[in-house]
Amino acid sequence: MKILLETERLRLREFTFQDTAFIITLMNSPGWLQFIGDRNIKTQEQAKFYLQHGPLKSYLQYGYGLSLVERKEDGQPIGMCGLVNRDGLPHPDLGFAFLPDFSGQGYAYEMASAVVKDASTRLQIPTILAITAPDNARSIRLLEKVGLKLQKTTRLPNSQEDLLLFSN
After folding, report:
1. Which residues pair with 151 in a beta bridge?
2. Maximum distance among all Cα pairs of the chain, rounded to whole angstroms
3. pLDDT in tens, 129-155
4. CA distances from 167 to 50, 58, 96, 131, 145 (A)
5. Cα-based distances in Å from 74 to 19, 41, 71, 150
6. Which residues of 61-100 are buried (b: 16+ CB within 10 A; e: fewer)?
7. Side-chain-side CA neighbours of residue 124 (13 Å)
8. Would you give the DSSP letter of residue 147?
9. 99-112: per-residue pLDDT in tens?
10. Is the four-CA dihedral 122, 166, 91, 6 of positive or negative sign?
11. For 96-142, what is the HEC assignment?
């Protein structure tokens, strides 16, 4: 397992196929379903397909992608964070999601700010974007706290959903 970043309390590591149970739990959590949407990931096979064609493919293609966030103290997986190259966006997009038991403890800010810093320093990516639903107040606050500013409302290809677009 490849560790990408470490903060005071957290590690960011690449996903592996051993993370399928965590993916199922995260992608079916209330916040994910409300703000990101049902991706129909209910089985180990579906989670493995998601990992293979999502994060693992992105690591090979771009050298980055969504990765697993775990606590250093006990190795507990608590969320995902990283950069995504998304259709319809001209620059990488900061993505994050955390299990509800770990929200409100500063973990998302701790890792999202480390990912943004790493993107500009190690990865040499000058422009970072982020999208969120207009009613996702917690994500909006987090994006502003890590230094991203609201640019406009946008829609991704093949979607009817209006999203807020942020940029550094």
Report:
1. none
2. 42
3. 999 999 999 999 999 999 999 999 999
4. 27, 21, 15, 9, 12
5. 16, 26, 6, 36
6. eeebbbbbbbeeeeeebbbbbbbbeeeebeebbbbbbbbe
7. 0
8. T
9. 999 999 999 999 99
10. positive
11. EEECHHHCCCCHHHHHHHHHHHHHHHCCCCCCCEEEECCCCHHHHHH
Q: Is the dihedral of CA 14, 15, 18, 22 positive or negative?
A: positive
Burial class (CB in 10 A: 0-12, 13-18, 19+), 132: buried
Report pLDDT digits (tens) over 23-72. Answer: 999 999 999 989 888 899 999 999 999 999 999 999 999 999 999 999 99
Closest alpha carbon to 130 in 154, 111, 114, 106: 154
Residue 100 token pair: 């509800």
Q: Which residues of 12-38 are buried (b: 16+ CB within 10 A; e: fewer)?
A: bbbbeeebbebbbebbebebbeeebee
Both structure tokens of 98 = 């955390």
